[in-house]
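Hello,

Our lab assistant flagged a job as stuck in the queue for most of the afternoon. It eventually completed. Since we weren't sure the result was trustworthy after the delay, we are filing this so someone can double-check. Below is the sequence as submitted and the structure that was eventually returned. Let us know if re-running is recommended.
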Amino acid sequence: MALLQISEPGQSLSPHQLRRAAGIDLGTTNSLVASVRNGEVITLVDSQDRYLVPSVVRYHSDHQVTVGYDAVKSSVDDAHNTIVSVKRLLGRSKSELPHTGYHFTDDERVPRIITSGGEVTAIEVSAEILKHLARRAQLQLGGDLDGVVITVPAYFDDAQRQATKDAARLAGLNVLRLLNEPTAAAVAYGLDQKEDGIYAIYDLGGGTFDISILRFTKGVFEVMATAGDSSLGGDDLDHVLSDWIMEQAGIADDGDHRTRRYLQRAAKMAKESLTVKDEVRLDVERPDGDCWHGKLSRTNFNALIDSLVLKTLAPCQRALRDAGISKTDINDVVMVGGSTRVPYVREKVGKFFNCQPHVDIDPDQVVAIGAAIQADVLVGNKQTDDMLLLDVIPLSLGIETMGGLVEKIIPRNTTIPVTRAQEFTTYKDGQTALSVHVVQGERELTSDCRSLARFELHGIPPMAAGAARIRVSYQVDADGLLSVTASEATTGTESRIDIKPSYGLSDVEVEKMLSDSISHAESDVVQRRLREQQVDASRTLEAIGAAMAADGQRLLSADERAKITQAMTALQSVQEGGDVAAIKQACQAVEKAGAEFAQRRMDESIRTALAGHKLDDFNT
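-- returned structure --
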C-alpha cells in the first residue's frame, strides 16, 4: 500500500530538492560551464571528456549554426562565416572594433557581421555559445537551469556588461549575477577560507587582462582596486608570433583573411607547445603552395612577447597605488586565465610581486569553478553567511554641470552595489526643465569624458534661479549596471533612465582615461577653476541684467545706470579669456557697482510687503 506524504503548511513537498545552478566562464578563446554536484564543484564535459568549448561559431547558408570544436574545423577554410574571439566585439561600436577581417553592414550604432546565414551581432554570436553551454549543463544536471552566474572581466565597462546580459537573455538564461573574473578565481581558490589578508588576482585570458587587489576581512571579500586592459590577451601573443612567422616565411601581408587565420592557428599551436618544450618546429604552407620549415626557441618567443607581458605590469602598479598598498602588503598572488600557462608570464609576474604565484588550479577552469560556487549560493542551495563579495566600479560616474564641468557622483573603485545622490538646482529664473547628462571618466571637463546617456526632467515649478531642489541619484547594481533618477523635491516629479549604451569604450580609451587623468591633473584643476569663474560671471551678468531691465529706469539715475553698464561691459570683455583673477576682479566690480541698486530693490520689496498692514498683524 502506498504511503501518503504529508507536509506542514508552507513547507515544500520536496524540502531537500536542490535547484539547478551553473557558473559560466564566457571566454574569448574558450568557454566552459561548471556546477556544484553532491557538494563538489565540477566542470561539465562533453561525450569526449572535453570541458572546454572553443568560443567559435559558424553560420551556414541554410541558417544552421555550429558551435565549438566542429566550428573550429572551418575557421580557416570558411573564415568569413566562422566567428572567433567574439568577446572582443561585445559592447563596441563599428569605429571601435579591432581589425577582424569580417564584413560589416553600414550600421554605425550596432555592428552587424555579414555571414552566409544572415547578419549577426556580437550579442547573438555570444548567445549561441551560451546556448551550447546551457544544453551541456541541462543534459548533465537533468533539467532546465534555475539560474547562472556569468563571469566578466573586471575591466568590462557598462556597455560590455550589458551586452553580456543581453546575450544571456537571448540564450534563455536567468542571470543571477555577473561576477568579475578575478573575484571568481579568489572564490575558487578558497581564499575566503584563509586568514584575513590582501590578495592579488592576475588574470590574463585570451582577449582581456585584469588585475584585482582583494581584501578578505571577517567574511567580506572587498575589491580594493582593479585595473587592466580590455583588449590585451593571448590573442595578441598569437598575433605577434604570426607576424614573425609571416616575416620569416616570406609571406606577404595582403589582407587575406584565410591566410591570417591559418597563421594565427599555427602561432597558437607553437605557443602552447613552448609551455612544455624549449623549442618547436614550424611547418607553414605558403599561399603559393610551397612549405616553409623553421624553428622557434622559447628564448626567442620570450623576446617576441616581452613588450606585451610588460604591458600587463603597468596596470598592476596602478592597482597597488589605487589600493594604497605596496607589494609587501600582498599575502598571495593567484594566476588566472589560459595565457598564464606561458612560463615567461609566470616568471615576470613572480619577479614583480616578489613571490611565487599560485597556479595550483587549472587556469582555464578556475573562473568557472568560482562562478559555480557563487551560483550555488545565490540560487538558494547553500545557506551561508560566511562570504560576501563586494566588487568595484572601474571608472568614475558623474554628471555635467554648468560650464561643461563634471561633478563626480560615484568615484572609481567604489564598492558595488552602491547608491549615491546629490542635489542640484536651476540656473535661470522660471526654469521648468532640467537636462541630465551622465558621463564616465576621470577628467574635470565633460568634453574629456565618455558620454553615457542624456535625459530630461520636466514639470519643475517655475521659481527663482537656485530655489528649486533637484535630487539626482545614481544606482549601480551588483552587476555593475547603472540607473539614474532625477526628482524635484516640492512636486515629486521624477524621471529615470537605465543606462544601456549600444557600444562600449574602445581598447585605448580605458587606459587613456586613467593615464590622462594623472598627466593632466594640474591643468584640469586650472581649467575647472576657470570654467567655474566663467559660470559665476554669467550668473552675475544675467541677474543684474534682469534687474536693470525690470527696475533700472525707475530706481537709478542715468549716471548710476551708466556706471553699472560700464562694469558689466568690462566683465563681458574678460569673461571668455583665460585669466581667472581678471574675471573674478571684474565680477566683484559689477557687484560693487550694483550694490546700492540691490539695496534699493530690497527696500522697495519690503515696503511693498508691509503696505496695508499694521505692526500688530505680524505679532504672534
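-- support follow-up --
The delay was a queue issue, not a problem with the job. The result is valid. Residues 73 and 128 are 17 Å apart (CA to CA). The mean pLDDT is 82.
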